[in-house]
Amino acid sequence: MADLLALYRTMLTIREAEMALARLFADGEVPGFIHLSVGQEAVAAGVCSALTPRDSVASTHRGHGHALAHGLDLHGFFAEVMGKASGVCRGRGGSMHVADLSIGMLGANGIVAAGAPIALGAALAHRTRGTGGVAVAFFGDGALAEGVMHETMNIAALWRLPLLLACENNGWAEFSRSETQVAARLSALAAAHGIPHRELDGADALALAEAAEEAVAALRRGEGPRVIEARTRRWRGHFEGDPQRYRDPAEAAEAAAHDPIARARAAFLAAGGEAARLDAIEAECRAAIAAAIEAARAAPAPRWEEERSGAYAPAEG
Ligand SMILES: Cc1ncc(C[n+]2csc(CCOP(=O)(O)OP(=O)(O)O)c2C)c(N)n1
Ligand SMILES: [Mg+2]
Protein backbone atom coordinates (compact mmCIF):
# COMPACT_ATOMS: atom_id res chain seq x y z
CA MET A 1 0.00 0.00 0.00
CA ALA A 2 2.75 2.43 0.99
CA ASP A 3 4.65 1.64 -2.19
CA LEU A 4 1.61 2.22 -4.35
CA LEU A 5 1.06 5.62 -2.75
CA ALA A 6 4.69 6.59 -3.28
CA LEU A 7 4.46 5.54 -6.93
CA TYR A 8 1.20 7.45 -7.27
CA ARG A 9 2.82 10.59 -5.88
CA THR A 10 5.79 10.31 -8.24
CA MET A 11 3.62 9.69 -11.29
CA LEU A 12 1.28 12.51 -10.41
CA THR A 13 4.20 14.89 -9.88
CA ILE A 14 5.50 14.03 -13.35
CA ARG A 15 2.05 14.32 -14.97
CA GLU A 16 1.18 17.61 -13.31
CA ALA A 17 4.63 19.05 -13.94
CA GLU A 18 4.52 18.14 -17.62
CA MET A 19 0.98 19.37 -18.17
CA ALA A 20 2.04 22.63 -16.55
CA LEU A 21 5.03 22.74 -18.88
CA ALA A 22 2.72 22.20 -21.87
CA ARG A 23 0.79 25.32 -20.86
CA LEU A 24 3.95 27.31 -20.14
CA PHE A 25 5.40 26.26 -23.50
CA ALA A 26 2.24 27.29 -25.35
CA ASP A 27 2.44 30.67 -23.58
CA GLY A 28 6.06 31.19 -24.62
CA GLU A 29 7.51 30.79 -21.11
CA VAL A 30 9.68 27.79 -22.02
CA PRO A 31 12.49 28.28 -24.55
CA GLY A 32 13.52 25.54 -27.00
CA PHE A 33 11.72 22.26 -27.52
CA ILE A 34 10.04 20.02 -24.98
CA HIS A 35 9.12 16.34 -25.29
CA LEU A 36 6.56 15.11 -22.78
CA SER A 37 6.32 11.65 -21.26
CA VAL A 38 2.61 11.90 -20.44
CA GLY A 39 1.18 8.36 -20.33
CA GLN A 40 4.63 6.84 -19.71
CA GLU A 41 5.10 7.99 -16.10
CA ALA A 42 4.96 4.50 -14.59
CA VAL A 43 8.28 3.56 -16.15
CA ALA A 44 10.21 6.42 -14.57
CA ALA A 45 8.39 6.04 -11.25
CA GLY A 46 8.68 2.25 -11.12
CA VAL A 47 12.33 1.97 -12.15
CA CYS A 48 13.56 4.88 -10.03
CA SER A 49 11.72 3.59 -6.96
CA ALA A 50 14.37 0.85 -6.82
CA LEU A 51 17.24 3.37 -6.74
CA THR A 52 18.98 5.55 -4.17
CA PRO A 53 20.79 8.87 -4.81
CA ARG A 54 24.12 7.00 -4.97
CA ASP A 55 22.85 5.28 -8.15
CA SER A 56 23.22 6.90 -11.56
CA VAL A 57 20.56 7.63 -14.14
CA ALA A 58 21.13 8.67 -17.75
CA SER A 59 18.10 9.77 -19.67
CA THR A 60 16.75 10.75 -23.08
CA HIS A 61 15.23 13.76 -24.84
CA ARG A 62 11.99 12.73 -23.04
CA GLY A 63 13.67 13.00 -19.67
CA HIS A 64 11.55 15.11 -17.30
CA GLY A 65 10.01 12.06 -15.65
CA HIS A 66 13.34 10.33 -15.09
CA ALA A 67 14.82 13.44 -13.47
CA LEU A 68 11.85 14.01 -11.18
CA ALA A 69 11.48 10.34 -10.27
CA HIS A 70 15.15 10.20 -9.34
CA GLY A 71 14.58 13.06 -6.92
CA LEU A 72 15.44 16.25 -8.79
CA ASP A 73 14.18 19.25 -6.85
CA LEU A 74 11.04 20.81 -8.37
CA HIS A 75 12.33 24.37 -8.01
CA GLY A 76 15.61 23.59 -9.75
CA PHE A 77 13.69 21.66 -12.39
CA PHE A 78 11.17 24.32 -13.39
CA ALA A 79 13.72 27.11 -13.28
CA GLU A 80 16.02 25.07 -15.51
CA VAL A 81 13.37 24.21 -18.10
CA MET A 82 12.22 27.85 -18.05
CA GLY A 83 15.82 28.98 -18.64
CA LYS A 84 16.34 30.82 -15.35
CA ALA A 85 19.57 31.36 -13.38
CA SER A 86 18.15 29.49 -10.38
CA GLY A 87 17.83 26.33 -12.51
CA VAL A 88 19.65 23.19 -11.49
CA CYS A 89 22.11 23.83 -14.37
CA ARG A 90 21.86 27.59 -13.95
CA GLY A 91 19.38 27.80 -16.82
CA ARG A 92 21.98 26.85 -19.42
CA GLY A 93 20.75 23.39 -20.27
CA GLY A 94 16.97 23.47 -20.36
CA SER A 95 14.63 20.55 -20.91
CA MET A 96 17.01 18.25 -22.78
CA HIS A 97 19.97 18.77 -20.44
CA VAL A 98 18.44 18.69 -16.98
CA ALA A 99 21.09 17.15 -14.73
CA ASP A 100 22.04 17.03 -11.06
CA LEU A 101 25.17 15.07 -10.32
CA SER A 102 24.61 15.37 -6.57
CA ILE A 103 21.81 12.80 -6.87
CA GLY A 104 23.35 10.82 -9.74
CA MET A 105 21.10 12.34 -12.39
CA LEU A 106 23.53 12.36 -15.29
CA GLY A 107 21.21 14.28 -17.53
CA ALA A 108 18.53 14.24 -20.15
CA ASN A 109 20.12 14.02 -23.58
CA GLY A 110 19.11 15.31 -26.98
CA ILE A 111 21.18 12.71 -28.82
CA VAL A 112 19.25 9.48 -29.28
CA ALA A 113 20.96 6.57 -27.46
CA ALA A 114 23.70 8.80 -26.04
CA GLY A 115 22.59 8.18 -22.44
CA ALA A 116 23.42 4.48 -22.78
CA PRO A 117 27.22 4.75 -23.02
CA ILE A 118 27.19 7.45 -20.34
CA ALA A 119 25.36 5.08 -17.98
CA LEU A 120 27.74 2.32 -19.03
CA GLY A 121 30.67 4.50 -17.96
CA ALA A 122 28.91 5.23 -14.67
CA ALA A 123 28.37 1.50 -14.14
CA LEU A 124 32.08 0.92 -14.72
CA ALA A 125 32.90 3.72 -12.25
CA HIS A 126 30.61 2.17 -9.63
CA ARG A 127 32.36 -1.16 -10.09
CA THR A 128 35.89 0.28 -10.12
CA ARG A 129 35.34 2.49 -7.09
CA GLY A 130 33.38 -0.15 -5.22
CA THR A 131 30.51 2.23 -4.47
CA GLY A 132 27.86 -0.48 -4.48
CA GLY A 133 25.84 1.74 -6.80
CA VAL A 134 24.25 0.84 -10.10
CA ALA A 135 23.52 2.77 -13.29
CA VAL A 136 20.32 2.97 -15.30
CA ALA A 137 20.10 3.93 -18.95
CA PHE A 138 16.61 4.93 -20.04
CA PHE A 139 16.13 4.77 -23.81
CA GLY A 140 13.36 4.57 -26.36
CA ASP A 141 12.65 1.85 -28.91
CA GLY A 142 14.02 4.14 -31.64
CA ALA A 143 17.42 4.07 -29.93
CA LEU A 144 17.88 0.45 -30.99
CA ALA A 145 18.72 1.72 -34.48
CA GLU A 146 21.86 3.38 -33.08
CA GLY A 147 25.13 1.45 -33.10
CA VAL A 148 26.13 2.66 -29.66
CA MET A 149 23.20 0.78 -28.09
CA HIS A 150 24.68 -2.47 -29.39
CA GLU A 151 28.18 -1.51 -28.25
CA THR A 152 26.81 -0.69 -24.80
CA MET A 153 25.12 -4.09 -24.51
CA ASN A 154 28.30 -5.81 -25.60
CA ILE A 155 30.61 -4.19 -23.05
CA ALA A 156 28.04 -4.34 -20.23
CA ALA A 157 27.59 -8.07 -20.80
CA LEU A 158 31.28 -8.77 -21.38
CA TRP A 159 32.37 -7.00 -18.21
CA ARG A 160 29.23 -7.91 -16.21
CA LEU A 161 28.66 -4.28 -15.27
CA PRO A 162 25.86 -3.11 -12.94
CA LEU A 163 23.80 -1.53 -15.73
CA LEU A 164 20.03 -1.62 -16.04
CA LEU A 165 18.86 -0.93 -19.59
CA ALA A 166 15.34 0.45 -19.26
CA CYS A 167 13.55 0.67 -22.59
CA GLU A 168 10.40 2.76 -23.01
CA ASN A 169 8.90 1.06 -26.03
CA ASN A 170 6.13 3.38 -27.21
CA GLY A 171 6.16 2.14 -30.80
CA TRP A 172 7.28 5.49 -32.21
CA ALA A 173 10.57 7.05 -33.18
CA GLU A 174 9.78 10.67 -33.90
CA PHE A 175 7.24 10.55 -36.77
CA SER A 176 7.77 6.93 -37.85
CA ARG A 177 6.76 3.59 -36.42
CA SER A 178 9.95 2.25 -34.91
CA GLU A 179 9.41 -1.12 -36.62
CA THR A 180 10.20 0.67 -39.90
CA GLN A 181 13.62 1.58 -38.49
CA VAL A 182 14.66 -1.31 -36.26
CA ALA A 183 14.93 -4.89 -37.59
CA ALA A 184 15.57 -6.69 -34.31
CA ARG A 185 13.49 -7.06 -31.18
CA LEU A 186 15.12 -6.01 -27.92
CA SER A 187 14.41 -9.42 -26.40
CA ALA A 188 16.45 -11.05 -29.18
CA LEU A 189 19.28 -8.54 -28.85
CA ALA A 190 19.42 -9.09 -25.11
CA ALA A 191 19.44 -12.86 -25.59
CA ALA A 192 22.27 -12.56 -28.12
CA HIS A 193 24.34 -10.86 -25.41
CA GLY A 194 23.22 -13.22 -22.66
CA ILE A 195 21.44 -10.41 -20.82
CA PRO A 196 18.25 -11.32 -18.92
CA HIS A 197 15.28 -9.46 -20.41
CA ARG A 198 11.82 -8.81 -18.99
CA GLU A 199 8.94 -7.28 -20.86
CA LEU A 200 6.26 -5.50 -18.84
CA ASP A 201 3.12 -3.45 -19.22
CA GLY A 202 4.40 0.12 -19.12
CA ALA A 203 1.24 1.33 -17.38
CA ASP A 204 1.65 -0.98 -14.39
CA ALA A 205 3.78 0.97 -11.92
CA LEU A 206 3.72 -1.70 -9.22
CA ALA A 207 4.87 -4.45 -11.59
CA LEU A 208 7.61 -2.19 -12.93
CA ALA A 209 8.75 -1.31 -9.42
CA GLU A 210 8.94 -4.99 -8.47
CA ALA A 211 10.82 -5.90 -11.64
CA ALA A 212 13.23 -3.01 -11.10
CA GLU A 213 13.82 -4.02 -7.49
CA GLU A 214 14.62 -7.55 -8.55
CA ALA A 215 16.91 -6.36 -11.36
CA VAL A 216 18.74 -3.82 -9.19
CA ALA A 217 19.29 -6.43 -6.47
CA ALA A 218 20.90 -8.68 -9.10
CA LEU A 219 23.07 -5.80 -10.31
CA ARG A 220 24.22 -5.08 -6.76
CA ARG A 221 25.14 -8.76 -6.37
CA GLY A 222 27.42 -8.36 -9.40
CA GLU A 223 25.39 -10.60 -11.70
CA GLY A 224 25.80 -8.39 -14.77
CA PRO A 225 23.40 -6.20 -16.76
CA ARG A 226 19.63 -6.52 -17.07
CA VAL A 227 17.05 -5.28 -19.53
CA ILE A 228 13.56 -4.11 -18.66
CA GLU A 229 11.36 -3.36 -21.66
CA ALA A 230 8.17 -1.47 -20.86
CA ARG A 231 5.41 -1.47 -23.47
CA THR A 232 4.09 2.01 -23.21
CA ARG A 233 2.10 4.64 -25.08
CA ARG A 234 3.06 8.15 -26.07
CA TRP A 235 -0.06 10.22 -25.49
CA ARG A 236 1.14 13.46 -27.01
CA GLY A 237 3.11 14.43 -30.07
CA HIS A 238 6.80 13.73 -30.44
CA PHE A 239 7.39 17.28 -29.23
CA GLU A 240 4.98 19.94 -28.01
CA GLY A 241 3.46 21.56 -31.07
CA ASP A 242 3.79 18.43 -33.22
CA PRO A 243 0.64 18.41 -35.45
CA GLN A 244 0.86 14.57 -35.63
CA ARG A 245 -0.40 14.26 -39.21
CA TYR A 246 1.34 10.90 -39.41
CA ARG A 247 -0.79 9.36 -36.66
CA ASP A 248 -4.37 8.07 -36.60
CA PRO A 249 -6.24 10.17 -34.00
CA ALA A 250 -7.92 6.96 -32.79
CA GLU A 251 -4.56 5.92 -31.35
CA ALA A 252 -4.63 8.76 -28.84
CA ALA A 253 -8.02 7.63 -27.55
CA GLU A 254 -6.77 4.05 -27.28
CA ALA A 255 -3.67 5.23 -25.41
CA ALA A 256 -5.72 7.18 -22.89
CA ALA A 257 -7.41 3.95 -21.84
CA HIS A 258 -4.02 2.82 -20.51
CA ASP A 259 -3.47 5.51 -17.91
CA PRO A 260 -0.90 4.43 -15.32
CA ILE A 261 -2.17 6.99 -12.83
CA ALA A 262 -5.83 5.99 -13.10
CA ARG A 263 -4.69 2.41 -12.74
CA ALA A 264 -2.75 3.08 -9.55
CA ARG A 265 -5.67 5.04 -8.16
CA ALA A 266 -8.09 2.19 -8.90
CA ALA A 267 -5.72 -0.37 -7.36
CA PHE A 268 -5.42 1.71 -4.18
CA LEU A 269 -9.19 2.08 -3.86
CA ALA A 270 -9.80 -1.60 -4.65
CA ALA A 271 -7.43 -2.51 -1.80
CA GLY A 272 -9.57 -0.49 0.61
CA GLY A 273 -7.59 2.77 0.48
CA GLU A 274 -9.36 6.05 1.02
CA ALA A 275 -9.93 8.42 -1.89
CA ALA A 276 -9.19 11.34 0.44
CA ARG A 277 -5.55 10.24 0.73
CA LEU A 278 -5.16 10.27 -3.04
CA ASP A 279 -6.85 13.64 -3.26
CA ALA A 280 -4.53 15.03 -0.60
CA ILE A 281 -1.49 13.85 -2.58
CA GLU A 282 -2.91 15.50 -5.68
CA ALA A 283 -3.41 18.79 -3.85
CA GLU A 284 0.15 18.65 -2.44
CA CYS A 285 1.66 17.94 -5.88
CA ARG A 286 -0.25 20.81 -7.47
CA ALA A 287 0.70 23.25 -4.71
CA ALA A 288 4.39 22.29 -4.90
CA ILE A 289 4.40 22.71 -8.68
CA ALA A 290 2.59 26.05 -8.55
CA ALA A 291 5.14 27.32 -6.00
CA ALA A 292 8.05 26.14 -8.16
CA ILE A 293 6.61 27.87 -11.23
CA GLU A 294 6.06 31.13 -9.36
CA ALA A 295 9.62 31.04 -8.02
CA ALA A 296 10.99 30.32 -11.50
CA ARG A 297 8.99 33.20 -12.96
CA ALA A 298 10.44 35.54 -10.35
CA ALA A 299 14.02 34.30 -10.86
CA PRO A 300 16.47 36.25 -13.04
CA ALA A 301 17.65 35.08 -16.45
CA PRO A 302 21.26 33.82 -16.65
CA ARG A 303 23.81 36.63 -17.07
CA TRP A 304 25.63 36.59 -20.38
CA GLU A 305 28.76 37.96 -18.70
CA GLU A 306 29.03 34.68 -16.78
CA GLU A 307 28.45 32.45 -19.77
CA ARG A 308 31.92 30.89 -19.68
CA SER A 309 31.95 30.08 -15.99
CA GLY A 310 31.37 26.41 -15.47
CA ALA A 311 32.29 25.64 -19.10
CA TYR A 312 36.04 25.38 -18.51
CA ALA A 313 38.09 24.30 -15.50
CA PRO A 314 40.18 27.17 -14.07
CA ALA A 315 43.70 27.28 -15.55
CA GLU A 316 46.28 25.81 -13.21
CA GLY A 317 49.36 27.64 -11.91
C1 LIG B 1 21.60 10.50 -33.01
C2 LIG B 1 20.28 11.15 -33.27
N1 LIG B 1 19.61 10.85 -34.41
C3 LIG B 1 18.40 11.41 -34.66
C4 LIG B 1 17.84 12.30 -33.76
C5 LIG B 1 16.48 12.90 -34.01
N2 LIG B 1 15.50 12.23 -33.13
C6 LIG B 1 15.09 12.83 -31.98
S1 LIG B 1 14.07 11.85 -31.11
C7 LIG B 1 14.14 10.62 -32.27
C8 LIG B 1 13.37 9.34 -32.11
C9 LIG B 1 13.51 8.76 -30.77
O1 LIG B 1 12.66 7.67 -30.63
P1 LIG B 1 12.72 6.83 -29.31
O2 LIG B 1 14.14 6.56 -28.97
O3 LIG B 1 11.83 5.67 -29.48
O4 LIG B 1 12.16 7.83 -28.20
P2 LIG B 1 10.70 8.45 -28.05
O5 LIG B 1 10.74 9.79 -28.74
O6 LIG B 1 9.73 7.52 -28.65
O7 LIG B 1 10.53 8.60 -26.59
C10 LIG B 1 14.99 10.98 -33.31
C11 LIG B 1 15.27 10.11 -34.46
C12 LIG B 1 18.57 12.59 -32.61
N3 LIG B 1 18.10 13.43 -31.69
N4 LIG B 1 19.77 11.99 -32.37
MG1 LIG C 1 9.84 5.46 -29.06
Secondary structure blueprint with pairings:
Layout: H1 2-26, H2 41-48, E1 56-58, H3 64-69, H4 74-81, E2 105-107, H5 115-129, E3 135-140, H6 147-158, E4 163-169, E5 172-173, E6 176-177, H7 186-192, E7 197-201, H8 205-220, E8 226-231, H9 249-256, H10 260-270, H11 275-298
Parallel strand pairs: 1-2, 1-3, 3-4, 4-8, 7-8
Antiparallel strand pairs: 5-6
Helix pairs in contact: 1-2, 1-10, 1-11, 2-8, 4-11, 5-6
The structure holds thiamine diphosphate and magnesium ion.
Thiamine diphosphate (TPP) is lined by residues 61-62, 110-112, 140-143, 168, 170, 172-174, 178, 234, 238.
Structural account:
The protein is an alpha/beta fold and 317 residues long. The protein has a single domain, classed as Rossmann fold, CATH 3.40.50. It is built from 11 helices and 8 strands. The strands form 2 sheets. It has a 6-stranded parallel β-sheet, with helices on both faces. The protein has a two-stranded antiparallel ribbon with strand order 5-6. Helix 2 runs parallel beside helix 8 and helix 4 crosses helix 11. The model has no long low-confidence stretch (mean pLDDT 96). The structure holds thiamine diphosphate and magnesium ion.
Entry keywords:
6-stranded parallel sheet, single chain, binds thiamine diphosphate, Rossmann fold, 317 residues, binds magnesium ion, 11 helices
CATH topology group = Rossmann fold
What is the H level of CATH, i.e. the homologous superfamily?
A: Thiamin diphosphate (ThDP)-binding fold, Pyr/PP domains
Q: Could you estimate the helical fraction of the residues in percent?
A: 40-55%
- The parts where pLDDT drops under 50 for at least 5 residues are none
